[in-house]
Amino acid sequence: MKNINRKMVIVFLIWLLLAIFTVFIYYTGNTELKWIDIPTHIAAGILIAAAIFKIKTSDSKKALTLAFLPFLGWEFFEIGASTISQNEFIIELFKETPPNRLQDLVMNTVGFLIFLIATNKKF
Question: Are 104 and 36 in contact (CB under 8 A)?
């Protein structure tokens, strides 16, 4: 268990660095590196899976269903932030196309599945 916690701390730090880098990329307007959002969502999926399995359930199907609450919640947060905000940077940071939102959900799910494989959990 200690080894899994250490690995999750490392994944959290990777996610945090990716998230900071993503904000920086959007802030500088660098369109060539916007793909950095993909590994950020994968890392988030891993972290959410780890949290759900630690706190709530050991059933993989139930855990995936629960994982969609934060997966979808984040996308709705982005929609709200890009719609309600008066700050131009916030609007640009969270404004995404529907295909990109779908990609985010898929990448979160990929991260969840990576967690399942890495921890030998059955689906």
Answer: no
CB 25 within 8 A of CB 34: yes
Tell me the pTM. Answer: 0.87
Contacts 24+ apart (CB under 8 A), 120-123: 121/53, 121/58, 121/60, 122/60, 123/60, 123/61, 123/64
> Per-residue pLDDT for the chain (123 aa), expressed as one digit of tens each?
566 678 889 999 999 999 999 999 988 988 899 899 999 999 999 999 999 988 877 788 899 999 999 999 999 999 999 999 999 888 888 888 999 999 999 999 999 999 999 988 877
Are 45 and 107 in contact, with CB atoms under 8 Å apart? yes
The first and second tokens of residue 4, run together, are 């899994």
d(CA 75, CA 91): 14
Q: Which amino acid is at 48?
A: I
